[in-house]
Amino acid sequence: MVMKSPYLCSSLFLVLTLVPVIVSGSENSFEIQPFDEGYTHLFGDDNLVIHRDGKAVHLFLNERTGSGFVSQDLYLHGYFSASIKLPSDYTAGVVVAFYMSNGDIFEKNHDEIDFEFLGNIRGRDWRIQTNIYGNGSTSFGREERYNLWFDPTDDFHQYSILWTDSRIT
């Protein structure tokens, strides 16, 4: 499975910081790749702001659009991580996603690994959905939903995918 990674898309009132990282050598050795050397802005006009000499990206959402970007290269393995603070306002119907997919190459039978933060109504527990698809089907993967035991709107929290040659964590 070779995928572009990470696709990062968001909608409505999110503040997100992503630090693109690529595994070099072993799973304990990480090198931060500058945004303009490895990623392309997909949408959101001024809602994507590059920081820290190009090694961090902040994504913002407003009433009209979110923002997103995609890797320029394909990755066989890697460590992909996003520091995300979700909006504390009413977000029912909004999904914030951090995912990897090769859907642009295999349109009918793509593979995907993702975190999806499902919109929320004030006072209810936040839910996260994780998906792993193989050959474009949940029958070759897994889809799970969890209620979060913490408030993801209070502060930034790190969400990561470590993908080695033998496992995905």
Q: Which short descriptors sum up this protein?
A:
mainly beta, Jelly Rolls, 8-stranded antiparallel beta sheet, 5-stranded antiparallel beta sheet, 1 helix, 52% strand
The percent of residues in helical segments reads: under 10%
Shape descriptor: globular
Largest sheet: 8 strands, antiparallel
Low-confidence stretches: 4-27
Per DSSP E runs of 2 or more residues, the count of β-strands stands at 15
CATH fold name, please?
Jelly Rolls
- Tally the helices: what do you get? 1
What average pLDDT do the residues reach?
76
Give the termini distance in whole angstroms. 15 Å
SSE class: mainly beta
Domain module tally: 1
Please provide the ordered H/E string of secondary-structure elements.
EEEEHEEEEEEEEEEE
- Which CATH class is shown? Mainly Beta
Strand content: over 45%
Oligomer: single chain
Radius of gyration: 16 Å
Keywords: Glycosidase, Hydrolase, Signal
Organism: Hibiscus sabdariffa (roselle)
Signal peptide: 1-24
Protein name: GH16 domain-containing protein
Give an overview in words.
The protein is mainly beta. The protein has a single domain, classed as Jelly Rolls (Sandwich), CATH 2.60.120. It has 1 helix and 15 strands; from the N terminus they run ββββαβββββββββββ. The strands form 3 sheets. Strands 1, 5, 8, 9, 11, 12, 13 and 14 form an 8-stranded antiparallel β-sheet that branches. The longest helix has 4 residues.
